[in-house]
Amino acid sequence: MADEDLPDSLEPAIDVPPRDEPPPPPTPKGDLRAVSIIAIVTGVIVIGWYLFVVTVSTVSELQQLAWIQIGMWVLAAVSTVCGILSLNARMARELAAAGFIAGVAAGLLSISIGFFSGLELLN
């Protein structure tokens, strides 16, 4: 007799009001995917340029060499800064690690190859 007073568990709850939707989760902090991608792209450009400088001897015949070299220094600086910023990533850590490596490689190549060969080619 006591069970007859309870509602049937298979019947839909018609008189139960719907619950309010919970607020969406906050945007996670530490999402630096854009910074990592910038570090990777600019790092690849800088590394490709310095490989070109090292392997091709006709670089001195380029007309806009001074502007290209200054642009590579700027890209290397951007890549290095973005690579260091990638260390603060809490999400997409593999991408952040790749951004850091590309940024540091671009910075080191810019210092080792780019500085001396750039000064030599600019003169």
Query: Could you tell me the mean pLDDT?
Result: 77
Provide the gyration radius in Å: 28 Å
Largest sheet: none
Structural class: mainly alpha
* Binned strand content: under 5%
Spans with pLDDT under 50 lasting ≥5 residues?
none
Intertermini distance: 102 Å
Secondary structure tally, helices: 3
How much helical structure, as a percent, in the residues? 55-70%
Which oligomeric form is depicted? single chain
Shape: rod-shaped
Number of strands: 0
* Element order: H for helix, E for strand: HHH
Keywords: Membrane, Transmembrane, Transmembrane helix
Can you describe what's shown?
The structure is a single chain. The protein has a domain at 31-56 and 64-122. With 123 residues, it is an all-alpha fold. The mean pLDDT is 77. Helix content is 60%, strand content 0%. The longest helix is centred in the last third of the chain and has 30 residues, at 93-122. It contains 3 helices and no strands. α1 (33-55) runs parallel beside α3 (93-122). It has helices spanning 33-55, 65-85, 93-122. The chain is rod-shaped.
